[in-house]
Amino acid sequence: MSLLAAILLTILILVVGLPLFFYLWTKRLARMGEQLVPQAGDVIPVRGGGIHYVEMGNPRKQTLVMIHGLSGQLQHFTYALVQDLAQDHHVIALDRPGCGYSPRDDDALAELPEQARMIGEFFDKKGIKDPVLVGHSLGGAVSLAIALQRPRDIAALALICPLTHPVDSAAPAFKPLEIRSPRVRRWIGNTIAVPMGKRTAAETLRMVFAPESCPEDFLENAGGALGLRPQAFVTASADLVWAEQSIRAQADQYPHLRTPGGVLFGAKDPIVPAKDHGPTMTQYGLSYQALEGRGHMIPITDPDACSEFIRGISVMARIPATLVK
């Protein structure tokens, strides 16, 4: 074999073999993730996909609908919050469209109004009336979008470390998700994203949980292992890009917000800075409070404070709007 032929063969092996190797490795890791965190509930079809959810508590009590954030899944709430709140509430925790076990047909459905529309259709099919929306991080932005779309259908908003306004750039932990091409997003998601993500997971989680610590059982009991699936990367990337594009238009609508509620932050949140996304919402009728020394993942690191906050908002939901104002 000539030197040129050997070089060409080596290039061919690298071009074809490496992506195939990473693809097969990704498939293996995805199976591991699904074995660690299997589907927990039922899926209700909606236009453009479906909503996977779990349900606890007495349906005759006030309904809480819990909507997780970027790169998350419903286990962020079932980890510590749902069981406690279900003692005196009807609680539904769901996977946002495209996340966990909720299918999503197209990346463009990541736009905030589309996610709100899909979850709203889930409410209609499920027969959910006057819920309190508990939205964490990006789930807070989606909760606000639902309240703006359905101002008479939502009892109150309990927003935890919510994204509420445009940001200049993504937090460093989520920078690798800023991929605007759907084709490139899927190629990366099905080849190198999951193996590389597994190698850098410890550092990423350190940044997301800072200044607090990530619990040792996060991958299994908080659903983190579902991040080993290529769809998790694809969804999170699309969510990030479309949220950046749609949050500005949403923020312009806040003067029309008529739903009561409140905002709870970790004062040292490094992902969604409290000073930029919390106090600004008081002018639209929402209360604001911050937990000293806490970060972004307080539904997991400080569930007692979150439960107290949510219960306070739930009480507000049962007070006539004229008295709240």
Descriptive tags:
325 residues, alpha/beta, 8-stranded mixed sheet, 14% strand, globular, disordered C terminus
Give structural notes.
This protein has 325 residues and is an alpha/beta fold. The protein is 45% helix and 14% strand. It has 13 helices and eight strands. It has helices at 3-36, 75-78, 82-85, 112-126, 138-149, 182-189, 193-209, 218-221, 230-251, 274-277, 298-301, 303-317, 321-324, and strands spanning 42-46, 49-57, 63-67, 90-94, 132-136, 156-160, 261-266, 286-291. A hairpin with a 2-residue loop joins strand 1 (42-46) and strand 2 (49-57). The chain is globular. The protein starts with a helix and ends with a helix.
List the helices and strands and how they pair.
Layout: H1 3-36, E1 42-46, E2 49-57, E3 63-67, H2 75-78, H3 82-85, E4 90-94, H4 112-126, E5 132-136, H5 138-149, E6 156-160, H6 182-189, H7 193-209, H8 218-221, H9 230-251, E7 261-266, H10 274-277, E8 286-291, H11 298-301, H12 303-317, H13 321-324
Helix pairs in contact: 4-5, 6-9
Helical stretch tally: 13
Structural class: alpha/beta
Order of H and E elements? HEEEHHEHEHEHHHHEHEHHH
Which bin fits the share of residues in helices? Answer: 40-55%
Shape, per Cα inertia axes: globular
Q: Which parts are unreliable, with pLDDT below 50 for 5 consecutive residues or more?
A: 12-16, 321-325
Biggest beta-sheet profile: 8 strands, mixed
Kindly state the mean pLDDT as a whole number?
Answer: 91
**N-end to C-end Cα span:** 83 Å
Strand order of the biggest β-sheet = 1-2-4-3-5-6-7-8
Radius of gyration using CA atoms only? 20 Å
Q: Provide the β-strand percentage band.
A: 5-15%
